[in-house]
Amino acid sequence: MLHSPATPAPAPAPAPAPAPTLLPPVVREWSTECALKPRAVALARTRVRTCLTVLGWTGDIDDAVLVVSELVTNAVRHARVRNRVAWLRLAVLEDGGLLVDVSDPVAGFLRGKGADVPPGKSGECGRGLRLVGRLGELSWFLRTDAAGGKTVRVHMACEHREREVAVVQSDGGDKLPGTPWNPPPNPGPTPDGGPGVPNPQTPKGG
């Protein structure tokens, strides 16, 4: 009697992305595309240093530049897709904190033979993200737009602002949810890796 070969078990689905933490409203933000090429890292560092000054963020700009450098480096190394770009977003929060979002076209964190590894667990990328995790709250979520992919987010507190708030008011105010950010539809790479630093945008309606 003939037996059909055993059907291989399906690969386990990636674990769901953590839900974004509840955050205060965004008051100012800026975003730009990043070519998934090595030169994008240095370009992002330069733009972020300038943009955070324009946005008036009073936190540690050197730490923020380091965070951006690590996230963009990881996207360039591990999320290259032909004719696709990454997106970088900086958002200043009402309480003085900062969100750093880097979105890329790969839904997951692929290592070695295709195993899905959340950020900060292992490998070269993991070491960089562990460093990032010491500078802010690290999370990630899947993009919900047609382009797909994921967003890696670091929430950085503004220590100077936190000390001021602790003196003048008690803790416990209501917070609004930090809505998962979907970058604009992918327009494809640009010759210089993305536009220059535009004027910061103030979200309408909080």
Topology:
Elements: E1 26-35, H1 39-55, H2 61-78, E2 85-93, E3 98-104, E4 110-111, E5 115-116, H3 123-135, E6 137-142, E7 150-156, H4 159-168
Structure explained in plain terms:
- 28% of the residues lie in helices and 21% in strands.
- The chain has 4 helices and 7 strands.
- β6 (137-142) and β7 (150-156) form a beta hairpin.
- Spatial gap, N to C terminus: 70 Å
Structural class per helix/strand content? alpha+beta
Number of helices: 4
DSSP E strands, number: 7
Order of helices and strands: EHHEEEEHEEH
Q: What radius of gyration results from the CA coordinates?
A: 19 Å
Largest sheet: 5 strands, antiparallel
Low-confidence stretches: 10-14, 112-125, 161-179, 187-199
Could you say which overall geometry the principal axes of the C-alpha atoms support? Answer: globular
* Mean pLDDT value: 74
β-strand percent reads 15-25%
> How are the strands ordered across the major sheet?
1-2-3-7-6
Share of residues in helices = 25-40%
